[in-house]
Amino acid sequence: MKKSLFVLLLLPMLSACAQDAPPPAKEGEVLGDMTIEEFEPRSTLVVPENIVTKAKFPFVDAHSHWFRAASMTPGAIDTLIQEMDEMNMGVIVNLSGQSGEALQGALSNMEARYPNRIVTFANVDFEGVGGDNWTENAVAQLRTDIEAGARGLKVYKNLGMDVMDVDGNRVSVNDSRLDPIWALAGEMGIPVLIHSAEPASFWKPRDKFNEKWLELKLRPNRYRDPATNASFEEIMAEHYDIMAKHPNTTFISAHLSWLGGDLTKLGEMLDTYPNMVTEVAAVIYELGRQPQHARQFMIDYKDRLMFGKDSYNVEEFHTYFRTFETADEYFPYYRKYHAQWRMYGMNLPDDVLRAVYYGTALRVIPGLDASLFE
Fold first, then answer.
1. What is the span of the domain harbouring residue 126?
2. Do 63 and 93 form a contact (C-beta atoms < 8 A)?
3. Please, what is the angle between helix 179-187 and helix 232-245, to 10°?
4. Residue 335 — φ and ψ, nearest 5°?
5. Does residue 126 sit within a domain?
6. Cβ atoms < 10 Å from Cβ of 158
7. Please, are residues 149 and 118 in contact by the beta-carbon 8 Å criterion?
8. CB 357, CB 55: distance < 8 Å
9. Domain for residue 73, yes or no?
10. What separation in angstroms does the CA of 73 have from each of 4, 8, 205, 292?
11. How many domains are there within the chain?
12. pLDDT tens digits for range 96-137
């Protein structure tokens, strides 16, 4: 009885609220029902814009992937080179060279047509670690791949996170059974571009404080449950441990070593491991939100930094050029779920641009044609 009375008393109040409510949204207008995933405001700020579609100096994209390199048509390869020329890209590094026959196919299909413009890295298949003669066979195959023309080794993020040995145990990045692989790379003078872990936010609670919340909402498989996964700190400690154990091997720590948001710490890592360099692939959003601090960092460590992009999309390169070469303010990043913030240009000095665009790569990756950058 009391509940019915409460409802009767509430109905007039609800009716009054409805009369005061704003009119329904017009066609094409989304208000209260809009989700945060849909929210994409257009800035009303009017500031100078300098869109850069061609890098000031020739550059090496040291982090790219061509999963079907062996089967790319001559026309597709010619188009790639044309686009590279339009961006002022001197060399592109295909990190997805694979191994054995697949590597041979990539080398003969892409590098044979443009031997000075396309460089291929080999990959090691970590399936079967711990099996009979696995280490010896992996080392022998890598040696064969290098002798065939691979100019580096790319290690994917599954090592340390998802790779299991034959006994079902996680294979750590610094597993001693892999030491001969890193040693061979140093012996044969090729760099190891290694991607370990993912952004630390992927291990944190998916709550309102996590700045990667939107990415984890849209890509839920990227979340790493701390209860069932090795921690970010553990994986990265393993990552740096192989650099300490193999000082004669050059390691390219991918994606600013996931320290783009803590450049002071990244500088400490570079100081600690003189055989380590890093690159900016897929993390330009970190540098673009702290232009003054990042500018000084890049000036201080210009000879330890390389250009890289990761996915290949011509228009996305323009954001990198603009961040490095202009002093523009408050411009958008090209992928909202990676970064909800706006970017600022660093207006880097020419000597820093040259070092990052090609100087470090010429020193680290064997066989690059220096005349392309003169």
1. 57-373
2. yes
3. 50
4. -140, 100
5. yes
6. 13
7. no
8. yes
9. yes
10. 75, 74, 45, 44
11. 1
12. 999 999 999 999 999 888 989 999 999 999 999 999 999 999
